[in-house]
Predict the structure.
Amino acid sequence: MRQERIDIDGIPAIIWGEKSSKIYIFVHGKMSCKEDAEGFSEVATAKGYQVLSFDLPEHGERKNIPDYQCHVWNGVHDLKCIGSYVQQRWDDISVIGSSLGAYFSLLAYNDYPLEKCLMISPILDMERLIRNMMKWFQISEETLKNQKEIPTPMGETLYWDYYCYVKENPIIKWDVPTSIIYGSEDNLTEREVVDAFTSKYHSNLTVLEGCEHYIHKPEYVAQLQKWIEENC
């Protein structure tokens, strides 16, 4: 499969596939990188799409860039840079976002003329997730406000400015035809959050019974692959 490595406003990216008027923007989640788009790209390019994947802050080729963390405002900024680049070059634009990448997409692309959106284990309510983490580790809002940032035993750090941003920027608009695949045991996004989103925004939902947030067991990976082939 053809790959073209490019740089978009300092963001390392890959364009997968032969020239086409149709493209998917691939937005990976945490602990991933632009190269992880290869499997999806094989399916999408067979259907006549190209795919553009890129590294989020602190991921892939951007791991050692100082003072540019994978915070929501940086993620949204980068997605908008990618979106502007794509809008100038392709007619038919869709997006696929995984976990945190799906959340960034909801904020960055709510006014973009997207054809469709695919979401894998999406974070749909970041404020609620942060509140849940505060509850899990007995961190009060006042404590977080005073300390500004607090590491947690699960390896994530809670930030006061991040928390304020997500409260001030809720998901209130999403008019894109959307399909979601989600594990029933996902502890980052509760089922009621997914159901509320799919109801409000008329999205299609596929539930992997017994699967957790990270889809990695062979039986679930096979179901994910089938879902991608059917929905791409």
Observations:
- The chain has two domains: 3-124+171-231, 126-170.
